[in-house]
Amino acid sequence: MRVAVIGAGAVGGALALLLDRAGHEVVLASRSSAEPARGGRRTLNLTGAFGEHRAAFAQASRLTGAFDLALIAVKAQDTQRAVAPHLAMLAATPTIVVQNGLEGAATVELLLAGLADANARGFVAGGLATFAVNRPAPDEVRATAKGSLTLGAASTAHLSRLEELAAALSPALECVVTDDLTSALWSKLLINQVNALPAVTGLSVQEIGLDADLLGVLASSIGELLAVAAASGAWLVELGPLDRALVDLANATPLDTVEDLARNRRLARELSAAFGPTPNYASTQQSITRGEATEIDALNGAVVSRGLMRGLAAPVNELLTSLVHNREGGSRQLTPADVRAAVITATVNSWFTREHRQLAWRLPTTTAWGVLVSETMLQQTQAARVEPKWLDFMERWPTPAAMAEATEAEVLRFWDRLGYPRRALWLLACARAIAEEHDGRVPETREALLALPGVGPYTASAVMSFAHGVPEPVVDTNVRRVLSRAFLGEETPWGPSAVRDAAEMRAVAPADPTAANLWNAASMELGAVICTAKRPNCNDCPIVGLCAWVSAGRPASTTIKKPQAKFAGSDREMRGMVLRELRAIPGGVEIEFLRRHLDPDGADSLRFDRALTSLKVDGLIFERNQAEIALTGD
């Protein structure tokens, strides 16, 4: 056969050399105007798994004349530029697009559709190469693992022609025909899931499968692909390293989360190992090494775009696509731990964007004052209890200046049973300080926030992040639990510590400020609604496949916890009862009258006295004439 090859890189060069060795006449398309014009020659050299072969090929800037077959082996993004000079020839020639991604054959068909005089002899099919090749130098091709070429067309009308072509090509390399090109393309896309991580880390495909952190990342990206493929109606088929056992595994519907994770991890291990004993760095890393653009948008990017069409998120594939583009732009290689942290944060951020609770203070119209109020109310109080109170509060005191005019008694009565009423007085003191010292505007620096009454490191960080867009680490109990489980594989081994919490959060937070602020909110949400303390819902967790705690078998905490004191009969209960009565009695009440009302049989006299003492110390009540007590401000 006389064969035209457009794109004599690693795959195209290997095909050209194998076909030449089998006796076919091969003509190459010139890669650029800098190469010899029509009639020039180019010498390629093959080594490795297919043996050795060296050949000089004719090449032309515009392929003309009659060809029995055309092979297009360029990256997806280069297709239009590469084939444009040769469209007339391609229209008259059976054309196989040997390209990664899902759109290769369709793109060429679209380019040919505009030719009015297309010869009926030509048609376009897809080609899927499953051999592994590197291009260590511009004209050198090294095969690291043998494989086959699978041919398929969108129309079954071309199956007989493809069978003839496969028979003609088979002396050069194993060549088979599929009647389901779509499923074959998805199968190749699954194999190509190994491409991104070598580019990001500098490790070989084989090393990816041996690293625990990266294996989890690869398994998660594979899980996303399988979900999108299933939603797209694709049924994975045997192809290259995808033997019958792996295909059955990939097409299986897992019964539960554990089975799903095991399936994805096994596929990740098997595909990584399938590249043979010689280290293979995959085409994406090779492109970066050569200073060329990669085809990552047609690989992991295709999972993202097809997922969007089906309403499915693919955050791991989206991040890997972004990380490869960063490497194209000159960014450093990442360690496995860096990659895992980036994938976890990006996945949780994506989940939060889709699934977060529509809490009132999360609206973009919320002011910095509204954020300060919400963070104060949320301390040790559930969001469901806080939200209606916050809405009433913001309607009554929409600005610090408005609240500054209130009395302590008004604020305490408003606070009612929200709990921990000292917070109400802290807010009032904050409002007055903001009104008097900051012209009614919530400070925009951490130092100024910390100088406000009642504002500690956590609240200052939360206001900086959620109100002012400065990504200070924000760590509450929920975030601490997520950090410990996901990254350390333990139940929370430490209590609150502003310094340690900030260090732990900074170590994993995204570098991008917007993403880091989102991670603050997203990790908090994950701990509040999924990664809960007593009954974590791992089945619905977006990072279950990456969680070190789940991988370790969800070990129980080794920390001995103090038993929580009962509320009934406690001093806290008595404090609440005293405040409840004083809120209902403007101006105060005689101490002994209140004592008899709350403790008619005298059994709780000491508890009553302790409650009064602690309430006075906290500034919530004051005593008149040593006989009466009232809410502060009455």
Distance between the termini: 101 Å
The low-confidence parts are none
- Arrangement of strands in the largest sheet: 8-9-3-4-2-1-5-6-7-10-11
Classify the helix fraction into a percent range.
Answer: 40-55%
Average pLDDT across residues?
91
- For the secondary structure, the number of strands is 14
Radius of gyration: 34 Å
Shape: elongated
Proportion of beta-strand residues:
5-15%
Tell me the major beta sheet.
Answer: 11 strands, mixed
Derived from helix and strand composition plus strand pairing, the structural class reads: alpha/beta
> What's the helix count?
29
Molecular structure report:
With 634 residues, this protein is of the alpha/beta class. The strands form two sheets. An eleven-stranded mixed beta sheet has the order 8-9-3-4-2-1-5-6-7-10-11, with helices on both faces. Helix 9 crosses helix 13. The relative contact order is 0.06. The model has no long low-confidence stretch (mean pLDDT 91).
